[in-house]
Structures are given as C-alpha cells and as structure tokens.
Amino acid sequence: MIHILFSLANFFRRQAQRLLNTSTLGVKALIIKDNKEVMLVEHTYMAGWHLPGGGVGLRETPKEAIVREVKEETGLVVNQEPALFAVYAHQIMGAADYPLLYVITDFSTPLNVKLCKEIRQARWFDINNLPPETSESTLQRIKEVIHSLPIADTW
Q1: Residue 7 in 3-state DSSP?
Q2: How many Å apart are CA 101 and CA 141, to the nearest integer?
Q3: 3-class state of residue 107 by DSSP
Q4: What ranges do the domains of the chain cover?
Q5: Do the Cβ atoms of 90 and 154 come closer than 8 Å?
Q6: Of 50, 36, 31, residue with least CA distance to 105
Q7: Please, which residues have CB within 8 angstroms of residue 133's CB and are 6 or more apart in sequence?
Q8: Which listed site, 32, 90, 94, 138, has its alpha carbon 20 to 30 Å from 20?
Q9: How far apart are CA 59 and CA 142, in angstroms?
C-alpha cells in the first residue's frame, strides 16, 4: 500500500513541475567499499536496484542532502565530505531534473540501522557481479566511476 502512495505522490509532484515549468535538484551516491563492492537500494515503489539518493530540500545544500539520503536509505554514516563526481540532465515524466552524483568511500555503519519506508532493502554487491535487475543508469554511473568511461551528459 505504501508503495502506491509513494508512486502517486511522485506522479502528481512531477506533473505539477511539468505544468509550472520548474526543475528539481537531486543527489545520488555511489558508495564504494574496499574498491570491491557498491551499495545499491531497492525501492518499495520502483523495480530494480538503484543508487541511493533523493531530492535536495529547500534549505539544504546538496552535500547535506546526500549525507541525509545515504543515512535514510542505507543506514550508513558518511565520515568524510562526499566528492562531487558529475552533474547530469534528466527528464522524469516531462519534468526537468538535475541529479548530482557523489562518490563516497569513507563511511561507518551504526549498530542499529533503520531504513526509511521507501526502501525495501539496501545491500552490498560485488562491482563485477551486479544483479540483473540493476537499472541501466546505475550500471552506467558505476562504469563511469569505476572503469573511467566518458561521463554522459544525461542520467
């Protein structure tokens, strides 16, 4: 039921943005452990495995947003200032979105982790053995960072 509510809220928000010709700023995290594993999340309202992230709040910097989103969606605590990797252009349901990709390698895991309601699960995956349900944009971002492929302009 909650995934339906998230989906509906997201749909109406995107339609309002499209009609008002506004854009959003988002953040995504590529969290890398020991140069071997990446953290991916599975949402309750969307199929597949994705990079953790979300929107930047009204009175929030992108760096504050990525630290918050990482904690909410994975339970990890970012220990060092996240490094901005790239800015992308993206269209969601006709609305403009600009995701910023941060690379995070310094983090800790608290003892009691509680994920936000929009996340079904968060898991580590071997960089060379990602699940087949990994989203195409997630695969592309991993290739850009890990394998130094050219950075795309669009998400």
Answers
A1: helix
A2: 8
A3: strand
A4: 2-146
A5: yes
A6: 31
A7: 47, 48, 49
A8: 138
A9: 29
**Above 60 in pLDDT, residue 15?**
no
DSSP codes joined into one string, 34-86:
TTTEEEEEEESSS-SEE--EEEPPTT--HHHHHHHHHHHHH--EE-SPPEEEE
List CB contacts of 120: < 8 A, sequence separation 6 or more. Answer: 41, 42, 43, 44
For tokens 């339609």, the residue is 15
Please, what is the average pLDDT of the chain? Answer: 90
Whether residue 90 has pLDDT greater than 60: yes
Q: In this structure, are residues 110 and 129 in contact, taking their beta carbons and an 8 Å threshold?
A: no
Fold annotation for 2-146: Nucleoside Triphosphate Pyrophosphohydrolase (3.90.79)
Pairing, β 23-33 against β 53-55? antiparallel
Q: Is 96 exposed, middle or buried (0-12, 13-18, 19+ CB in 10 A)?
A: middle
> d(Cα 66, Cα 84) in Å, to the nearest integer?
10
Rounded distance between C-alpha atoms, residue 37 and residue 114, angstroms: 21
Higher-pLDDT residue of 65 and 21 is: 65
Is 42 exposed, middle or buried, given 0-12, 13-18 or 19+ CB atoms closer than 10 A?
middle
